Amino acid sequence: MVVVRALLLVAVAVAIASGACTPSDRSGPPLPPPARPAARLVAGDTLQVTVVDDDALSDEVTLDRDGNVTLRVCGRIALAGVDAQAAAARIAHCFANADAYVGQPWVSVMLVRRTASVTLLVGPSRRPREVPADDGLRLVDVLSTELARPPSLVTVRRDSATYTIDVDAVLRGAHANEPLVAGDTIVVDEDLPLREPVARAGVRTTRAAARGGDLAAATCGELTLKGASYRATGRGEHHPDLVAIGEALRARCPGGADEASLREACDRARGEQRELVVQGYGPAHPSIRAVEAKLAACPAFTPRTTPPPTEAECAQLRSKHAALLAAGKGENHPDVRAAAAQIEMCR
């Protein structure tokens, strides 16, 4: 039987709290709500379950005649009769209780059924991708599923209006994960790589194979820091990623990571942190938290401080600070203070 595909993405997430300051939100007015209610899942629906930034627990499954699906770590979960948002909540709760995660992961659920679509335009060349849509489709779930990482800021075109959405604010819980409707266009200015289309058979296997290849090529130092990063971002000891890292360390590094490979891995992590800071990532961003977890695992022989930015990077930071002030943001605005703190690294 020919299946007409449509995607219904919704997400459940626990907001990331950071520091004493209230996180900023650069979004414009909220999108108008969809006109129709979200669809309910029924037996025979094929779902793509995606855990954001975690392909090991992502899978494509079909509701059996009793309305259940079977997922790794969790086993069977009843999803018939609920919408995708409730299904994502149930799956996230299951992963957390199965010790695959410490806390609640961000889970997206996609329903393969209808043909309406949302257009995603990426980078300066506006590379297009058509994303099948349904009434429960939400912005950040599309971005995290279709792109290698969510962008910081996007615009959404609906009818004749344009809306600015601060994606970082959505991930922090400071702004709603906006629902989308067929005909919307999402514009991503950042030149981010597109993932393989996820709503087809075999993708999870392909990604799992790629992940296994990454581990096979990793040094003992890289494996050690990767494990620390996974733990700090919520993966539990029974999570498939940590299990795989543990097996690789026991097989190839029985005496632990050697000093040379740790030095090299820590140097790479510091370079990664510097690049993220220069790009404007704040301390609450998941990528910053992950690289800081790697640096925290570096032994005492490795300096913990971030190398100062280059002259070109400092010039970029000063231009960003000046642009924020020119846009009318005061010295006490969180974005201005963050930029000023980054400029201090140049002195």
Fraction of helical residues: 25-40%
Query: Any idea what the CATH superfamily of the largest domain is called?
Result: wza like domain
Arrangement of strands in the largest sheet = 8-7-11-9-10
Count of helical segments?
Answer: 10
CATH class of the largest domain: Alpha Beta
H-E order: EEEEEHEEEHEEHEHHHHHHH
Biggest sheet: strands, sense, closure?
A: 5 strands, mixed
Main structural class: alpha+beta
Distance between the termini: 66 Å
Looking at the structure, the CATH topology of the largest domain is: wza like fold
| Strand count | 11
Mean pLDDT: 75
Rg from Cα: 21 Å
How many domains, in number, for the residues? 3
Low-confidence stretches: 1-22, 198-213
CATH architecture of the largest domain: 2-Layer Sandwich
Outline type: flat
Summarize the structure.
The chain is α+β, with helices and mostly antiparallel strands.
Name a few traits of the molecule:
flat; disordered N terminus; 3 domains; five-stranded mixed β-sheet; alpha+beta; 37% helix; 10 helices; wza like fold; four-stranded antiparallel β-sheet; 347 residues; 17% strand
